[in-house]
Structure formats: C-alpha cells, structure tokens
Automatic annotation (TrEMBL), chain A:
This is Acyl carrier protein. Complex I is composed of at least 49 different subunits. It comes from Hevea brasiliensis. Pfam families: PP-binding. GO terms for cellular component: mitochondrion. Residues 47-122 form the Carrier domain. It comes from the Eukaryota.
Automatic annotation (TrEMBL), chain B:
It comes from the Eukaryota. The lineage of its organism: Eukaryota, Viridiplantae, Streptophyta, Embryophyta, Tracheophyta. It comes from Hevea brasiliensis (Para rubber tree). This is Complex 1 LYR protein domain-containing protein. Residues 11-68 form the Complex 1 LYR protein domain.
Length: 125, 97
C-alpha cells in the first residue's frame, strides 16, 4: 500500500506540472484524463459567453441596457435596424477575437443566436 | 434601407461590413475611430433613400471610399507609430512610459 502510494505520488507530480503548462497530450493522466484529452479545455463557459455578449449589447449606445436579456431580438425588441445589427456583430467579433463570415453574420439577429454562435465557435477567446 | 432597388439590401450591408472591417485595420487610434464614426454616420444619413439612381450613386461612392480606406490602411501600417495612443492602454496598466 505504501509502495503504491509512493508510486502514485510519483506519477501524479508530472501530470500536475504538465497540466499547469497547458499540455494536452498526456496519455497517463488517469486522474484527470477526460478533461486533459479534450480540446475544449480553454473553451469559454456558457455563463462567461452570455455575460460578455450581454455586456457588448448593453454598451451599444442606441440600446437601453435595462431591456437586454439573453432572449432579446435586436430588431424586434430593441428597436434597432439592420445597420445596428451589423455593428453589434462587429463589436462581438472584436470582443471574442473572431472573424464571422458574412453568410453567418446575416443570420445572427438576436442575443440567443449570438451566444450560441460564440459558444460553438472553437476559436472564441 | 427600407426600399429594395437594383442594389439589394444584402449588398449594402456587405459593403457596410467591409468598410467597418477595413476601418479596424488602421494602426492609429484616432483615424480608426474617425473612420468608424464616419461610416456609421454616412450610412445612417442615407438610410431612407428611395430613388434608385441616388441609391446607386451612394453605393458606388461607398465602394470608392472602401478602396481608398484599404489603400490607406496598408500605407499607414508601413509607418505604424511605435507608441500606442493613451486611449488604447487598458485601465490600470503601467504608469511608466
């Protein structure tokens, strides 16, 4: 038992240092293998995405911050027009350091869709 | 923006987006912010045009400005300022320099 504990301790130390260094290809990390093997380690959490997207929308000058919720529709609920829509999407691009292609950007016209798009984007930062 | 014309709404929005993207590439904070403001103001001013010839004139004007902006962004980037404007520093960053 003592030998096993010593062995485990030896094996765990490199795992933790590598985890700190952000290494993702650690085949012996049985304690935390699922997270380390997944490529979504540094992915944003849904609450973070929602919080940041709502902040972007609230700081838009033509928007009334008290009416912003995660379900709000830009043109129907907030009274914006398509130009403002484009601006908001550009602001979201800047916030998350993304490049949203035109075809996708045209479809995003509510907070819901924006949050989903950012959350599902692998490069969101 | 309410009226359809020979130039579709999608094209106008696409031009708007390209202009804003090009504006982002400027290195100088002041020019970048001015360009963004100017683009937004120009499009808002012309949003209620209904005459197709006016619309297409405004659209080609926009496209010409897009070309100018792209060229200027490239030229400015060749001589990028070494010191960033104070407006670009994050809050609570170092006071030195």
């Amino acid at each position: 038992m003592a030998l096993r504990a010593v062995l485990l301790r030896q094996l765990r130390v490199p795992v933790q240092t590598l985890a700190l260094a952000g290494c993702k290809s650690q085949p012996w990390s049985f304690s935390s293998c699922i997270r380390l093997m997944s490529s979504h380690d540094d992915h944003l959490s849904k609450e973070q995405v929602i919080g940041r997207v709502l902040d972007v929308v609230k700081s838009f000058p033509k928007v009334d911050p008290s009416r912003v919720t995660p379900d709000v529709h830009f043109q129907k609920d907030l009274g914006l027009d398509s130009l403002d829509n484009v601006e908001i999407i550009m602001a979201i691009e800047e916030e998350f350091k993304l490049e949203i292609p035109d075809k996708e950007a045209v479809k995003i016209d509510s907070c819901n869709l924006a949050i989903e798009y950012v959350y599902n984007h692998p490069m969101a930062a | 923006m309410a009226s359809l014309s020979a130039i579709s709404r999608a094209e106008i929005l696409s031009l708007y987006r390209s202009l804003l993207r090009t504006a982002r590439q400027f290195c100088d904070y002041n020019i970048r912010e001015y360009t963004k403001r100017r683009i937004i103001d120009a499009f808002c001013e012309n949003r209620n045009l209904s005459d197709p010839s006016t619309i297409s004139a405004a659209f080609s004007d926009g496209k010409a400005q897009l070309e100018v902006a792209k060229r200027q962004a490239t030229v400015y980037s060749l001589y990028a300022p070494k010191i960033k404007s104070v407006m670009e520093t994050n809050s609570f960053s170092s006071v030195s320099n």
